[in-house]
Design goal:
The protein is an alpha+beta fold and about 100 residues long. It has a single domain, classed as Ubiquitin-like (UB roll) (Roll). The protein contains three helices and five strands; from the N terminus they run E-H-E-H-E-E-H-E. Strands 2-1-5-3-4 form a five-stranded mixed beta sheet, covered by helices on one side. It starts with a strand and ends in a 5-residue tail after the last strand.
């Protein structure tokens, strides 16, 4: 069971409270987690990544185990702590400006 923490505005859009729990078949990668998230919550399609290219949207960041995974490959395996459900996969809205 993968734990996913979404920012408040996406929790509202998905109509969920707290973290989301997902089952991911096969190797647990960022792409697989996002595929499962979008399959379970279709209203989130296009909010985290471009639907055609599957590239991360600007101002959306992904973290796990205190590491920024935003620029990592979507096919790279996630840390064992995320796969085990010990640590959550975090989706964070980045801020711009000064």
């Amino acid at each position: 069971m993968i734990r996913v923490v979404l920012p408040a505005h996406l929790r509202s859009l998905a109509k969920v409270n707290g973290e989301v729990r997902l089952d991911v078949d096969g190797q647990v990668t960022q792409g697989a987690v996002l595929d499962a998230l979008e399959a379970s919550y279709p209203m989130l399609r296009g909010t985290l990544r471009d639907q055609a290219t599957k590239q991360r949207r600007p101002f959306v960041r992904f973290y796990a185990c205190e590491e920024d995974l935003s620029h990592e490959s979507m096919d790279a395996p996630l840390p064992k702590a995320v796969v085990d459900g010990t640590e959550p996969y975090l989706v964070v809205g980045a801020m711009a400006g000064g």
